[in-house]
From TrEMBL:
<feature type="transmembrane region" description="Helical">
    <location>
        <begin position="91"/>
        <end position="111"/>
    </location>
</feature>
<protein>
    <recommendedName>
        <fullName>Carotenoid biosynthesis protein</fullName>
    </recommendedName>
</protein>
<keyword id="KW-1133">Transmembrane helix</keyword>
<dbReference type="InterPro" id="IPR007354">
    <property type="entry name" value="CruF-like"/>
</dbReference>
<feature type="transmembrane region" description="Helical">
    <location>
        <begin position="233"/>
        <end position="253"/>
    </location>
</feature>
<feature type="transmembrane region" description="Helical">
    <location>
        <begin position="155"/>
        <end position="175"/>
    </location>
</feature>
<keyword id="KW-0812">Transmembrane</keyword>
<keyword id="KW-0472">Membrane</keyword>
<dbReference type="Pfam" id="PF04240">
    <property type="entry name" value="Caroten_synth"/>
</dbReference>
<feature type="transmembrane region" description="Helical">
    <location>
        <begin position="55"/>
        <end position="79"/>
    </location>
</feature>
<feature type="transmembrane region" description="Helical">
    <location>
        <begin position="203"/>
        <end position="221"/>
    </location>
</feature>
<feature type="transmembrane region" description="Helical">
    <location>
        <begin position="12"/>
        <end position="35"/>
    </location>
</feature>
<feature type="transmembrane region" description="Helical">
    <location>
        <begin position="131"/>
        <end position="148"/>
    </location>
</feature>
């Protein structure tokens, strides 16, 4: 790693430490909101003060994007520590480009994610694709890659790509029902304009995300081999674990409520 990278990392250490704590706290809030189904309607019924209610509604509207952004920021900064600023930036651009491309093509053509349409909760859109989507997949793909290399540091590139693809597929399967039915992140256009939108995800969508993650991971190569698993950052792995924990907890709460 260059001296310039080291200087950047040292200057960002206080910020990175604070971001991680903030991410964990926001993750707890997201777990409560997702699992309890807290929305604007429930706030209207339970909060009588209009100013407080308006503030809570605003926070609730931006909570999901804030959570995903914090996850991506933490993963990115830890990636810089491991592989350097230039490589981390290149990897981020590659993942962002791949995710935006597959989502954009799906909106336009209905393939491979189906005739998908993205809602407002993931905020600002890059064309038809919300910013939160590439941020989420950046965290998930890097988290999967780092987890595999943490436990199998000598794993070959092809097997690493296959493993990351499988983890990405499972991540999407865990997320999809919540994202569509409960959070309004996206839905699928019905076959006829008079029919309501579809909220049941097609399996081909999860398969597509798994294949994309595998292809991207196949080309994510480090300039130097990290000899010890202990030198790899653990935050990207824990970020992925937190994602799955929130999803699973929300599934269970919705099932038994």
């Amino acid at each position: 790693m260059s001296s310039r990278d080291s200087l950047v990392i040292r200057s960002l250490e206080p910020l990175v430490a604070g971001l991680w704590i903030f991410f964990v706290l926001v993750s707890l809030a997201v777990a409560v909101v997702w699992s309890c189904g807290i929305g604007e309607g429930s706030l209207e019924r339970s909060v009588s003060n209009p100013d407080l209610r308006a503030a809570l509604v605003w926070m609730l509207a931006h909570l999901d994007l804030a959570w995903i952004t914090l996850a991506a920021a933490n993963v990115y900064f830890r990636l810089v520590e491991t592989i350097g600023l230039a490589t981390a930036r290149r990897w981020a651009l590659l993942i962002f480009g791949g995710v935006i491309a597959i989502a954009w093509v799906s909106v336009m053509t209905g393939f491979p994610l189906g005739p998908i349409r993205y809602g407002a909760p993931l905020s600002l859109k890059l064309g038809p694709v919300p910013l939160g989507l590439p941020l989420f997949w950046f965290s998930a793909i890097i988290g999967a890659r780092e987890a595999l290399l943490r436990f199998r540091p000598r794993l070959g590139q092809v097997w690493l790509a296959i493993g990351a693809g499988i983890v990405a597929l499972l991540t999407d399967l865990n997320l999809e029902p919540l994202a569509a039915k409960w959070r309004g992140f996206w839905f699928w256009r019905a076959t006829a304009p008079t029919l309501p939108p579809v909220f049941d995800p097609p399996f081909t969508g999860s398969l597509a995300w798994g294949i994309l993650a595998a292809l991207i991971t196949l080309v994510l190569r480090e300039k130097s081999v990290v000899a010890s698993a202990q030198k790899r950052a653990w935050q990207p792995i824990v970020t992925l674990v937190i994602f799955h924990a929130v999803f699973l907890f929300s599934h269970l709460m919705h099932k038994f409520r």
